[in-house]
Amino acid sequence: MNKVRSFMMDMIIMLTAIAVVAVYTYGIRALWSIILSVLAAVLTEVAAYIIFMKKNPTRIADLSAIFTGLAVALALPSSAPFWLAPAGAIFAIAVAKIPFGDTTTTPFVPAAVGIAFVTLSYPSLVFAYPNLAIGKLTEVSTSTSFVSGTSLAQMLAQSKSIGTNILNVLDVFVGRVPGPMGASCLILMIGTFLYLVIRRQSGALVTFSYVLTCAILAFLFPRIMTGRMYSVLMELGAGLLFYCGVFFLSDPATSPRSNPGRVLYGVAAGILTMILRRVGTYEESVIFVVLIMNALSGVFDNLAETLLALIKKNKEKKQKLQPADGPEEEEETEEEDTSSVQNELPVEASSNQEFAPVPVPAPPLTPEPIPEPEPAPVAPEDDKIAAEVEALLASIIENNEEGGNGNE
User: Fold this and answer.
1) Cβ neighbours around 60 below 10 Å, total
2) What are phi and psi of 232, to 5 degrees?
3) Which of 47, 196, 211, 222 has the fewest CB atoms within 10 Å distance of its CB?
């Protein structure tokens, strides 16, 4: 109960700020429509608990009925009849909440169900927006003096642009364009999203992924010819896109439980929104996207678990295929091998050194033979002296031989 009450209190604070701006822009009709819608939602819940369920309506304290009444009223034009917003609030409580128990057990956002009900039942009243330039904001859309304006959603459906005038761009930001009285001010929508980021990060994750997906698709596939950025501005500022992203898709009771599931949930909602805006019957089909996504919210938790398991399995498989030394050491070894091979290649096979000399291996070291010394050359004078010495020796030998013979 405390968690639900805290969440609803944050939603009511944001819707109250939007209601103040709506009353300032559209006047007393907006105030009466809001009050009647809130009263219808609260009284329906009290009556259901007392009369049909025989219980004390203690669950009124969770503030969900007040949130439902505010959300339904602010999603409609200020020119709607006073009974239209209460009709949507009563249907939301009686059909989408009470039969399922309470806020935490309902499969759909009750306020979204109420808005879808009046959209299907009275589309001519839901999409009849007053022309702000004329100034007759107190007229009901069924009056003959009512002057309707062309909303951004209708302009996009007709491939018409706001133009490149800076004043027209400022009108989109400050809410001076025909549209739902609580969803036309783009600056206010961005402010509520920032508040959601501060207070409810899990819900803001859904809203962020949803709005970002819509912005990317609007940029890639523009429906106007004045530029992609103007397409993004018009798509985000048109209809209930930002409004549903902040207040309905972020509801914790009807959104996935895991963060990956929430991201997938928002992305799928964004894709479906942009598709229905192109092929849908109504100029604005975001409210039906909310109901479709509510019905499929459980699928995205299972889908996220499956995807994470596959990613983990592939990662483990890659780690098993890698060697223990790691990829960096392998790269270094391959570089060394490559460099050594390049050094051994001839000049023709080297791409980086085209004219480098071919390295020639050095011959083995063997001992060289020592040359024999040649006889020294004899001078001519030495030859003459040698000859005389030989002649002298020869004469001495002869004399000795003759003397020896005489003695005998």
Assistant:
1) 14
2) -60, -45
3) 47
